[in-house]
Amino acid sequence: MGLFDGIESVEVTQRSEYLQAGSYVLEVQAIKEGTSRKGEEYFLSEFKIIESSNPELPAGAPVTWMYMKRFDSFLKGVKAFIASAANCRVDEVTSEICAAAISDKQPLVGAKVSAFAKDVPTQSGGTFTKVTFSAVH
Q: pLDDT for 87-125, tens place per residue?
């Protein structure tokens, strides 16, 4: 067995920050689905920051938005994001469009979205960063 056996089957991930409070213009780099180490399903979008009001996340930096399926608002959040990235009405977003967005074809890569992120308190005493997306016109 060689030192690099199995290297072809591993996926390399780039580290990036999660969105923090601020206003942004973002360019979609990838849209994925996955399962966390705890077995929770998620929807994930990777972006390059084009414009930022947050000095900790400047233009050019990579950033990630992850939404866990366990949240009641999961489908609403994903639908709003897809509508913004696809520059369509929310009532035009279907499960087929969402499936295409996470496919190997990645049709929304390069799309630009505006994002407004704010920290909101949770019932358990922590904070949650709520992100609102809109299309860039």
A: 999 999 999 999 999 999 999 999 999 999 999 998 899
| Residue 120: how many other CB atoms lie within 10 Å | 9
Check if the beta carbon of residue 24 is closer than 8 Å to that of residue 115. Answer: yes
Whole-angstrom CA distances from 111 to 2, 31, 83, 94, 127 are 42, 11, 11, 18, 29
- Cα 115 to Cα 1, 61, 135, distances in angstroms: 48, 15, 9
Q: Which amino acid is located at 20 in the chain?
A: Q
Rounded distance between C-alpha atoms, residue 27 and residue 109, angstroms: 8
9, 128, 130, 22: which is closest to 76 by C-alpha?
Answer: 130
Distance, in Å, from the CA atom of 18 to the CA atom of 15, rounded to the nearest integer, reads 10
Residue 38: partners with Cβ closer than 8 Å, 6 or more residues away: none
Q: What is the C-alpha radius of gyration for the chain, rounded to an integer number of angstroms?
A: 16
